[in-house]
Amino acid sequence: MVPSSQATPQTRRRGLIPSWVPWAAGGTVLAILLIVLVTLLVVRGNIVRVPSVQGLTGKAAQTRLQEAGLKMVVSDQLFSATVAAGSVVSQQPRPGTTLNAGTAVQVALSAGSETFSMPDVLGLQLGTAQSKLAAKGLSVVVETAPSEQDQGTVIATDPSAGSDVQTGSSVRVTVAAGTNATQTVLPAKLTGHTFVIDPAPMPVGSASDPVMDVARRLRALLEASGAHVVLTRDVTDQGTAANTLARVQRAKATPSDALIGLEVLPSGAGGLQVLTMPTTSVAQFPKSDTLAQALVASLKGDFPSIVSQPTAPGSDTILTDTGVPGARLDLGSTSSSSDELSFTDPQWADNVAQGAYRAIAQVFGVR
């Protein structure tokens, strides 16, 4: 027997993975996480929110934008009766927009008030005349009158062309309503029909709601003809009460004959256009296309540039998921100065509502 003092020491078996490997792997993971975190911080640090500089002097606006990490570029000078000379009249992009640090923000500075001759806009279409007068800083009030000239043509202004006016002044523009202006809306029998009107919420930051204004006027015309009307949004609806899901549920709650959507976009060229269902919605498309064509024909007199096109598949779930023929009237864009002027004109809202009513009466009504 071998004495215990002479016993051969038991050999410890080494593991297959060296003891330092877990520590090295952990260190690598920590290093990757650190790199990702630093990258996110750098990227986030390069994104800034555009502050409002409207009404500030040019120097103060430049300082505020520099403090936010942005540059200022003076893109234009405009006469203004309300903004002092040298101060910011407008900015682009709008306040609240997120940009990369170092991006330039374009501002237009006020050149102060100015007295000048009233531009001659006789014979122009209303939209063109409004844009020309607005560019001079004039506020436009529109009225209509029967005339042999084409509908929407400017037939008179007050003050007249050549008179002295000042930036910020209000001028009255009279446009032709056509020779049969008193018969533009012929009554139709719509008893027994139900129509859904979907007034989409206005873009964020909008001060007015021309979509709802047109919707209410169209509703009054349809109900006066005996139709039942469902609105998917009320003027007081906000947040989830006005979102797409809530409006789809209201549109589906009552069986209807057709849906008319109304919307104003936050950007784009502006002007009216009719959006109809994509051709993939086979069941509803034929009558939707008929309704869209009737809308274009009915609104053409007041809005000569109006066009019709199908929506992209999946882009308008209210139009396609309600299960009835429908079309959507794109009323314009908040980024268009001409559209912004139209949105405040009651006659414009009347023209849109009456045109939509005539189209619905043509397709569904009995005269």
Q: In a few lines, what is going on in this structure?
A:
By secondary structure, the chain is of the alpha/beta class. The chain is built from nine helices and 16 strands.
Quick one: CATH superfamily of the largest domain? Zn-dependent exopeptidases
In the CATH scheme, the class of the largest domain would be Alpha Beta
What is the fold-level CATH name, i.e. the topology of the largest domain?
A: Aminopeptidase
The neighbouring-strand order within the major sheet is 12-11-13-16-14-15
Runs in which pLDDT lies below 50 for 5 or more consecutive residues are 4-11, 180-184
- How many β-strand runs? 16
Mind describing the biggest β-sheet? 6 strands, mixed
* Count of helix runs: 9
User: How much is the average pLDDT?
Assistant: 81
Which structural category do the helix and sheet elements fall into? Answer: alpha/beta
Distance between the termini: 124 Å
Strand content: 15-25%
Order of helices and strands: HEHEEEEEHEEEEEHEHEEHEHEHH
User: Helix fraction?
Assistant: 25-40%
CATH architecture of the largest domain: 3-Layer(aba) Sandwich
Q: How many domains is the backbone divided into?
A: 3
